Amino acid sequence: MHFQWYPGHMTKAKRMMQENIKLIDVIIELVDARTPLSSKNPDIEKMAANKIRVLLLNKYDLADEKKTKEWKEYYESQGYFTALVNAKAGKGVRAVNSVVMDACKEKIERDRKRGIINRPVRAMIVGIPNVGKSTFINSFAGKACAKTGDKPGVTKGKQWIRLNKSIELLDTPGILWPKFEDQMVGLRLALIGSIKDEILQIEELACELIKYLRLEYPDMLREYLGFEATGAEHEVLLMYAEKRGCIQRGSEPDTVRAAALMMDDYRAGKVGKITLESR
Ligand code: G4P
What we know:
Strand content: 5-15%
Distance between the termini: 29 Å
Order of helices and strands: HEHEHEHHEHEEEHHHHH
Number of helices: 11
CATH superfamily of the largest domain: P-loop containing nucleotide triphosphate hydrolases
Structural class: alpha/beta
Number of domains: 2
CATH topology of the largest domain: Rossmann fold
Bound molecules: guanosine-5',3'-tetraphosphate
CATH architecture of the largest domain: 3-Layer(aba) Sandwich
Shape: elongated
Number of strands: 7
């Protein structure tokens, strides 16, 4: 599911978000564990001032365990309540309940002192496209209240999903936009498949991946390719095309097809558990 982002979409998404934020106590923000920084939009900090903040590192099944732990600790040091989640498999999802309750402890206590008892905390999910918001809501709320589709610009009546006696969740997630201005952010989001491939040529993307893996995960790269990646990235891609039998008419290696195969494998976690950003 890919979105084309136009200024109109962004304005509308931002407006919806500002309206919804007024209604809630706690923001549950999803980032992609493979790019914990690039998949986060710093603008949310201003919009969410004074709100209780929970940050979920989603898709941890695809990310480097050690780096995920470092990022988790980092975000905790920044005042977030955090959890690791694999929304697709439903792993870590139930634990989010207690993380939210923990995050809201002081508020609940303040309410209690003011005589407000048993008022559920209200939460909303936010994140950039493709980070797993719909998958998470479905898993968190259970199939009965499943709602999908969060295309920007589609207005729906607000609905609260009663998760338990203590938490209510807004059924519509808030959509944040990536930080487009930063080229490295664009590259990393393209690598994980969160933004359209057309932004970069698939071959360029595969070459960038080879370059990064060579530096950070050389063993995984060797294992995946089945040979040592020496020489320029494009040469590596040529060799890989031959190895995978990607041959075009005239018996030339088809590097476009090889690059597409490699990117699919990487995005599906078949190259290994890889994180593109270090603390
Ligand atoms: P969004 O609402 O934030 O835009 O994201 P959405 O839930 O549509 O999820 C985007 C893609 O990420 C989906 O894959 C979804 O299955 C996948 N996903 C979500 N959470 C996780 C996770 O924790 N681990 C992994 N590995 N994948 C996750 P898709 O390719 O669009 O669909 P499908 O192939 O899963 O059917």
